[in-house]
Every structure is written in C-alpha cells, then in structure tokens.
C-alpha cells in the first residue's frame, strides 16, 4: 500500500515524469526526482512537486517505489548501470509506450529482489519538457498494466494504486504482445499518417483552406523527435504491418474511385460509419 | 444587393441547405424551399426557416437568387430539367464541394440570361438531413467563390453578400482547378484515410484503448454515403494523385523504420512539426 511514508522516486522529469510528480504532489505524497538537467530539477523544486532531487542515481537508494519516466532504451540502460542502487524489496515501474523489447531486456537482467511492473499511461501531449507537465490529462486517459508471471499481487496492486492516485480514467491489463499490437494501430499508425501528410506538401495556401478534418488528422504531427523514432523502431514488426495494411486499404479505395464503383464505395462508407460509432463522438 | 424584398429560393433542404435556410431566416430574410421530401418541408416550415415550400420546381420561378444545395450531379440534372423556370436576370449559386465538372456542365448548358456563381461553403458535419441544420458552424468556416470569365461584378458581390449574411469566417476566391486540387488534399484525402483506417480492423478491443489521435483521425469516417462517392469520383484525377503521394510517403517512412534510420526519421519529424505549426493549434 502506498502511504505518505512510502518513498517514491521518479527518474526522468520530462513531460510525463513531471506530470507524475505534479499529480503525486497534489495527492499529498513526497517525491524525489532524478534528472540530468539542473533547470528541470530547479523547476520541479520551485513548484514543490519534488522534495529533493538532482542528477545522482544514488538518490534512488532508499526508495520503495521507483518510477522510470525515461525514454525506452534509456530506461533499459539506466537499469543496467544503476540497478545495484535499488532497495531490496522495492517496486520498479515505468511509462514506456512500447513493451516487448523493454520488458524483455529489463526482466532478463533485473535483480530478483526487485519487482518490475510494466505500465503504460496512455497520456502525453504534443510537447516535451516539465514546463508542459499536466496531470489533469490523466483523468481522460487509460492506464495499462502489462503483467508477467513474475509479478506478485502486491506489485500489481501498487501499480493499480498509483493509477488511482494519479486519477487515471481507466485501469486495464494487457499482455505485452497484445499491448504493442494495439498501440501500433491506434497510436503509432496515426502518427505515421500525420507525419506523412505534413511531409507531402509545402503549399502555403493549404493553411488558408484547411478545415477541421485536416487539422484533426495532423495534430499529432507536432511530435517529440527524440522519443518517437525509438518508439517506432522498438515496435517495427507490428507497426510496419499496420502501415502495409493501411496502404492496401487506401490502394483499394483509390482503385474503386478510379473505377467509379459507387456501390462498393458506399458499402465501405457504411461499414466505416457503423464502426466509427463505437468510438464515441468527438 | 440582397434586401428583404429579394426573393431567395433554396433547392434541396439537407444539412447544408437547411443550415442556409436557418441562417437566412435568422438574418431576417424570406426564403422559399424546394425539397422532394414532404417531412423536410414540414420541418423547415415549422421552424419558420422557409415561408413557403414544396416539391415543385415551379416554386423557383419568381426568385432573384436560387441556391442549389443539391448533390453535385443532382444539381446538374436539376438545371438541365428546370432551367426554363428560372427568372431572367436571376442569380444561381450552389454549394457543391467539387467544381470543375459541375461548373463545366452547368456553364455549358445554362441560359445566357441567368448568371451562375459557383460557391463552396467549406462547412458540413458528419450527419445528413435538415434535423442537423446548424448555421453557427459557418462562423469558423471558409466560403470559397470560384468565378469564371462569365461572371459580373454584380454576381460576385451577391455571392460575397450571401457569405456575409450567413456569417462565414472568411471569403476567398480560387479558380476551379486550384479549388479541386486543394480540396482533394485537405478534405478528400483525409476522408479516404479515415475510411481506410476504419476498414482495416474490426477488433472491438480497440475502442477501449483508443486515444485522442485515433479518434481525431477517424472522426470524418462517419460519412454521408450518398454524397461522398460522387464527390470522390468527380475529383478522381486530383484525389487519386494525392492518395498515391501519401502512399509513397508512408512507404518511405515504413522503410526508414525497418532500416532503423533514426537520423532520417528525426529530420522528417522536425519538418512535420515545423509545418504543422502554421496550421494553428487544434
């Protein structure tokens, strides 16, 4: 159980780590922050989101719960270098948006006396850095726990409790492969589309004639270029399969349009409209 | 000049025709409505959006301004059948979302004593029918006038006045080919993407894990299947070229992901983020 006495450390105070710190502070918990950027630590302290912090990995050593909010491969490296500092019996969790590679590598090397619970808070914004930290976004967001056979009920309950404290809308469980496949479709594929759309054309006139549909489709083209290549590459099998599936569908639609096949186009639109209804308004 | 004494008739009281009627009524004008559906006419009358109406094309005969809010090819057919009813010296305008084919066919056959000003109000919603009429959407929308050499200053000013009365955000002018090319990209391509995305997968689990990006990208998949095949087909040269350009971009991204080419992926993300900024937030 997470109590006021629980020592919680967040490693990496970027957009998501900063939002976690803010949310935990709002809920009355004491957080330690580790970040290599002194101005990030200074900002977090000034906001009172962390009670102590600095660049030293040693700050982690008495922590009951360690939350890595590092980029996927940085997280793996950090564990490789610093896992000897973790407290026996502590819980380690993360926020990375892809799971198979990260979980495989962390679980392969992690000390048996530390329990790693893989989590993916499905939150984020089109910005980076602690200045954009915003824990209110969690209230509409899914929190996915990706358990393994190594996890204990105590570990899983800690992850669920963390999600409740941070006020996530919904907590659910997926296995790593299922998680990565779904994320490859609902999130990563959408980012590939938005990026591709923005990269097709440099006609400045387009801005003047853009309606909501184009603006909606390209919102996520405003992207963190340090994080996303890694997310794509760590999930490349599923993601490229989804890209290929979309290309096949678009090719089919193009051929139907060229053939002026109204009945088939109608069928396809009716099916899409039907399915889209399940996803709610917006 | 459009005055209270100007006789205005709207042909086709669907979502857009109904929204025009409502907007003109709100601004104090008297509108006649023509629609083949008696319940649509009854609804428009009950709301006072039209002062008279019915299915008979003859209702158009004393009108100074005739606004067709019919589907593109229905509009062309309607003019073919009923143009003898138009009043000499009257102004004819429309709302169709593609211009070259419609304008070519209407201008080829129209009586010389009637002036046709092609317009495209860039408004619409993911619903059809007068029950969803909503003139407030015009306040954020572009109104595009597509003039030809045949148009007079009096005719063009009538179109601009109509846009002002309906409170469109911005009135601009494009030639027919430029219009169709831009629409093919900023609107039609987005609809092809949304439809293709919805048609790829029928995994009901997806709804549970969908974030804003997927919801934003597929909003327009909720589509009027009677109208859109026609819009796509009337613009098939430009639209299929845009679909091909997007497929080429997505193929390139897929290959970069497969090759784990981080520097190129970064470059492409920075460019997309830069460009996206011009389009404003949302």
Quick overview of this protein structure:
Two copies of one chain form a homodimer. With 282 residues, chain A is α/β, with parallel strands linked by helices.
Structure commentary:
The first copy, chain A, has two domains: 167 residues, 3-Layer(aba) Sandwich (Rossmann fold); 99 residues, 6-phosphogluconate dehydrogenase C-terminal like domain (6-phosphogluconate dehydrogenase C-terminal fold), CATH 1.10.3660. The radius of gyration of chain A is 21 Å and the shape is elongated. Helices cover 47% and strands 12% of the residues of chain A. Chain A has ten helices and eight strands. The first copy, chain A, is α/β, with parallel strands linked by helices. At the A-B interface, helix 6, helix 7, helix 8, helix 9 and helix 10 of A face helix 6, helix 7, helix 8, helix 9 and helix 10 of B.
